[in-house]
Amino acid sequence: MLDEEATLNAWFCAEVLPLERALTSFIRRNWRVAADVTDLRQDIYERALAGARQAIPTHTRRYLFTVARNHLINCAKRGQVVSIELVADTSALDLGSDAFGTERQLTAREELRRAQQGLDQLPPRCREVIWLRKVEGLSTRETAERLGIGLDTVEKQITQGMRALVDFMLGGDGKIRRPLYARRRSRSDLR
Q1: Whole-number Å distance between alpha carbons of 143 and 29
Q2: Burial level of 124, CB count in 10 A (0-12/13-18/19+)?
Q3: What gap in Å lies between CA 190 and CA 99, rounded to an integer?
Q4: Exposure pattern of 108-122 as b/e (b: 16+ CB <10 Å)?
Q5: Residues 158, 130 contacting (CB under 8 angstroms)
Q6: Residue 134 near residue 89, CB atoms below 8 Å
Q7: Helices and strands (H, E) in the chain, number of each type
Q8: What is the pLDDT of residues 104-114, one digit of tens each?
Q9: Which of 54, 67, 126, 137 could staple 122 via S-S, CB 3.0–4.6 A?
Q10: What are phi and psi of 137, to 5 degrees?
Q11: CB-count burial class (<10 Å; 0-12, 13-18, 19+) for 65
């Protein structure tokens, strides 16, 4: 038992602690409340250690950031607070295959189905912009050129579409909510 604990501590000090700066940056990018960063990092360390007690992972970085991503998502779901950046940044991570069990795979498949349902109910142009940017990985400029629309339009569609998707994933109706704009000024109003 002492040998296992010593091995676990050695792994943590040699493999996990050197990733602290990257982990802290990841949390800051994906969580709105700066005051929560230290607590979240400690929670992630605790969960990483608990999982490593069963078997020390061979790919520590991938494992740690998978734990971090899942913990942030769970915290966001509990608090019903999700930022657009959270969805965007976690989807951009290349964490490899997540072989943590059948239950997690089933949950991921269900979430993927739910995301597809949310995507399907977006307006066609918005859905197309989200697909090109987030699935095909085109840049904002490439998306605008392919669809023959302006850069501002692409950015607005991404913002509105991602907000609607997040709302849908959290159990909302997933409708796009456009801001109420003040009456536009005509040239005669400016004189």
Answers
A1: 24
A2: exposed
A3: 62
A4: eeeeeebeeebbeeb
A5: yes
A6: no
A7: 10, 0
A8: 677 777 777 88
A9: 126
A10: 75, 25
A11: buried
Phi, psi torsion values for 30, nearest 5 degrees = -110, 5
pTM (2 d.p.): 0.43
The string over 149-188, giving b where at least 16 C-beta atoms fall within 10 Å of a residue's C-beta and e elsewhere, is beeeebebbbebbbbbbbbbbeeeebebeeeeeeeeeeee
Dihedral of the alpha carbons of 136, 60, 99, 138, in degrees to the nearest 10: 0
* CA nearest neighbour of 86 among 75, 98, 100, 102: 75
Which of 135, 67, 140, 139 minimizes the C-alpha distance to 98? 67
Tell me the per-residue pLDDT of 143-156, one tens digit each, with 9 for 90 and over: 999 999 998 999 88
Contact 27/37 with Cβ under 8 angstroms? yes
Q: Which domains does the chain have, with CATH numbers?
A: 1-83 (1.10.1740), 102-177 (1.10.10.10)
Q: Which residue has the higher pLDDT, 34 or 96?
A: 34
Which residues fall within 8 angstroms of residue 66, CB to CB, at 6 or more apart?
A: 95, 98, 100
Give the position of tokens 């040998």.
3
